[in-house]
Amino acid sequence: MSDLGDRKNGIRGNGPKGGGGGRRSIIATNVSRQTRRAMKAEILNEALIEFVVLLFERDDVGYTSFDLDGRILICAPWSKRNHQRWGLRRLEANVLRHILISETKNDKREPLFMLDNFHWYLNLAYRGKSQAMAWIETINIDARRWEQGRLAVTDEKARQWTQ
Hints:
Layout: H1 2-11, H2 23-30, H3 33-55, H4 90-104, E1 113-116, E2 119-122, H5 129-139, H6 143-162
Antiparallel strand pairs: 1-2
Helix pairs in contact: 3-5, 3-6, 4-6
């Protein structure tokens, strides 16, 4: 009986510190959901900006990261296999891909990236890095857009499991 009492007393006042569940629970205890969503949106924006910087690198001949028809030759942060190279988690890559695909259906502005037969293309109407960066600003990936994308992606996964 004293063993149970000792264990009970050992638990009292010594519960998990900082959530006890690793990185996710520590963040959850220290940051509001809205702040966390904003941080996720910033991660997507940063990956997209770095991708555009790399995409528009030039050498003596011209651009090195896409073909003459705009087909992208480097791994993208939203790719299913290479998102980790960009420091993104699978959900983050899926949300970014969802946002970019939804932008291809936007009638208000030309998309920067287009998907055709499982290949991503750069819209050659964007003539340089500055125009591409301006496009990134106009699509406005913020906390609200992150959450909309996350819900769409997770709903899609849930539908796949029920079929």
